[in-house]
Amino acid sequence: MNLSKRCEYALRALIDLGIAAELGRPLLQVSELAAREKLPVKFLEQIFIQLKEAGYIKSTRGKFGGYALARRASRIRFGAIVRLIDGPLAPIRCVSQTAYSRCTCPDEAHCGLRMLMLDVRNAVADVLDRCTVAEIVEITLRKYRRDKINPPFLRRSTPLLRVLGSTRAAGPRLSPRKQP
Fold first, then answer.
1. Contacts 24+ apart (CB under 8 A), 92-100
2. pLDDT grade for 156, boundaries at 50, 70 and 90
């Protein structure tokens, strides 16, 4: 699986919006996000239109306006965003759940390549569908705290230790659980 730049930028922007919200900045201007991530503003605006139409972000107009998450970060799963931006997660169409089409293999039921790619699709989907923006924000803020680095979007009036100290010590697991 190879994420498009559009999808990568969408995911990074959602994480940044989540970080900002956790640090007391519910609204961010697209220019600030673009500068932080070194992205073209116009391209990010196009991505935001798609995310807004799908209900993942919202915007507020005006001098002090900007973008914010439209849903709780814990309700935004990476798999849904990847599917929205890039389409199916399957490496080949004959194993896709959302865009299936028969492959050229003469015996699809016994095709070794199809069986392998089905496992690949399932593994990728399991990770992306399990992980939320909130979990990745938590992991990111914990890493900033560990490395004693000020996170982006921190208000000058907010003490760093109070904000970063509020993240849980034990975060979510991103690796598959071992079966006994």
1. 92/117, 95/121, 96/121, 97/121
2. low
